Each structure stands twice: as structure tokens, then as C-alpha cells.
Amino acid sequence: MSHTREFPRVTVPVLMSYKAEGRKIVGLTAYDAIFAGLEEECGVDFLLVGDSAGNVIAGHSTTIPMTMDAMLFLTRCVSRGTSRVMVIADMPFGSFQVSTEQTIANAVRFLKEGGAQAVKLEGAGYLLPTIQRLVEVGIPVMGHLGLTPQKINIFGGYEVRARKPQEARQLVEDGKALEAAGCFAIVLEKIPSSVARTVTSAVSIPTIGIGSGPDCDGQVLVSYDLLGIFDKFRPKFIRHYMEGAQLIRKAVSTWVNDVREGEYPTATESYGDEPDEGTSSPRAKQSSKASRPKK
Ligand code: KIV
User: Which numbered atom of ligand 1 lies nearest the CA of 29?
Assistant: First the structure.
């Protein structure tokens, strides 16, 4: 067996080398193949299949209801839609809290069945031995500190974390402990810039900020926020790079109107009686190619 073929995706050592080089790491969330492919084309380093899918895909008010089956399905979609980025699967609530054995079994599924290259899990403390074991068996782990949405029932809201000195100190210690346990990166969500800066200089692994200021080693955002598709709630750190919700509303309502007014479809958008016209869509072309016998 040959191992000489280069691994085609962004790897853990590559991301870790970016910190040493001072090159910012860029990640985004993705939940389906088409969006994931587009995001990859734009040059992101990693795609996180976030359990934020609970909010933006499934329509829940928290991430708590997300299941292994749902996250595995989404991870498979993102993996199939990409070939270069690192795909990181977010371990859903309940999938890593019960025991180290169950956590490993679940994380293994994300790599084997989901096609992910790494997993992310929220928290530190009691999870450190589990993280160490995951890394030992060959599963790269991204940590997540600060606002950890799976703790919503403890926190009682989505406010900025680590504003109090004691919580900030604990967060810095947790960052160091995650590095010692073998995490290759740490997401810092919604903490003061000063605390994110302290963690970033206290660890040699990259910190990836979301709502945590400019001094992290990289940034990640929920793609629906970046694109302005989710416009019901907009925390201060979200910049809409397009007004996706408005564009979608405008496009769909124009189409609804065109259909009602008999302006869609026109003759040029309809099929005549000539043969071969069924292969004019890229999808039809693809499947007719796939079913053609090879010469
Ligand atoms: O689930 C998610 O999208 C996340 C990001 C916000 C980091 O965890």
C-alpha cells in the first residue's frame, strides 16, 4: 500500500503553522454541499458543521435538540461538497458528556461516516481526559470556550462571557489546559477582546474568535449571519457582507408575481417537441453521463 499521495485537505499542522507565521485563519459554518462548495471556492481554511444548524437549519431556539444523526447527515453533505478545506464536525449536546468511550465512538462516526477531519466540543474541566484520549486515538479536537451555547440553560442567555475577573482568569487557565490536553485550536466565543488577547498569547495553538475582537489568530462566523440571510437578530459583532434575506425576499416575491401574472415561464423557458432537450440542465447532463457505458 502506498502512502505517497499527498493529503488533499488543509491539515492540523498547516493551521497550526499559520499562527507561527502570523497568517490569519479563516473559517465559516456550512450545513450543505452547495454552500460548502461556494465557501471553499472563496478560500476559507476550514468549514465548521456547527450545531448552530439547530437554529438556522432546524428552526429550534437553541442548539440543544441537535442529534448525532442530524449532525452526521449535515457533515456528510459538507464533506461531499468540498475537497480542500478541513471539515470540522461540531459534537452535539449529549454526544460527549456521558463517557470517554461514548465520546470516542461518536467522534469516530464523524470521521468515518461524516468525512470530517476533526471534531469540536464545548468546554474544558471534566472533558480534558476525554480530549486527551480523542487526540491519542487520532481525532483532532478543536476546543470552544467563552459563550458555549450548549450551556444556555445554565447561562440563561447569550450575553458576553468572562467580563468578571474570576471568569476571565478561569478562561485563560482553561485555554492552557485545552492546549495541554492536545487541542489543535480553540474557538473563543463572545468574550472581551482583552481576554481573547490574553488567551491568544498564553497558548501556542491558534485561537479562533467569534465576537471576541481582532486579536485572535483567526475568525469564524455563522455563514447565515455573514450573508445576512438570518436578519431577525444581529449582535454587534456581525457584519452583513450582503443583505441575503432582503435579496431572497425580493427574488422569490418577484417570481411569485411573475407566475401569477403569466410572465413565467415564457416560450424560451419551455420545451418544444425536439429530442435531446431533456439533457439541457447540468444535472440531467451529469446523470446521463454517469449512466453512459464507458468505452
Ligand atoms: O455551532 C456553531 O456554529 C459554532 C460557532 C458559532 C463557532 O459553534
Answer: 3
User: What is the per-residue burial (b if ≥16 Cβ within 10 Å, else e) of 10-28?
Assistant: bebeebbebbeeeeebbbb
Q: Which of ligand 1's atoms lies nearest the C-alpha of 222? A: 3
Q: Is the CB of 52 under 6 A from ligand 1?
A: yes
Domain architecture of the chain: domains with CATH: 12-226 (3.20.20.60), 246-291 (no CATH)
Query: Which residue has the CA at smallest separation from atom 5 of ligand 1?
Result: 50
Q: Quick one: cell of 206?
A: 491558534
The stretches of the chain forming alpha helices (DSSP H) are: 12-21, 33-41, 53-56, 68-80, 100-112, 128-137, 152-155, 165-181, 193-202, 223-226, 244-260, 282-291
- Please write the tens of the pLDDT for every residue from 202-254: 999 999 999 999 999 999 999 999 999 988 888 999 999 999 999 999 999 99
53-111 pLDDT per residue, tens: 999 999 999 999 999 999 999 999 999 999 999 999 999 999 999 999 999 999 999 99
Count CB neighbours of 234 within 10 A.
Answer: 12
- Choose the catalytic residue: 189, 261, 263, 274: 189
pLDDT tens-digit readout, 59-69: 999 999 999 99
pLDDT of residue 273: 86
Q: How many angstroms does the Cα of residue 63 sit away from the middle of ligand 1?
A: 10
The set of cell numbers assigned to 189 is 466565543
- Ligand 1 pocket test, pick from 119, 152, 222 with the greatest ligand atom count within 8 Å of Cβ, gives 222
Q: Relative to the CA of 149, which ligand 1 atom is closest? A: 8
Q: If you take atom 2 of ligand 1, which residue's CA is the nearest one?
A: 50
Query: What phi, psi does 242 have (nearest 5°)?
Result: -155, 160
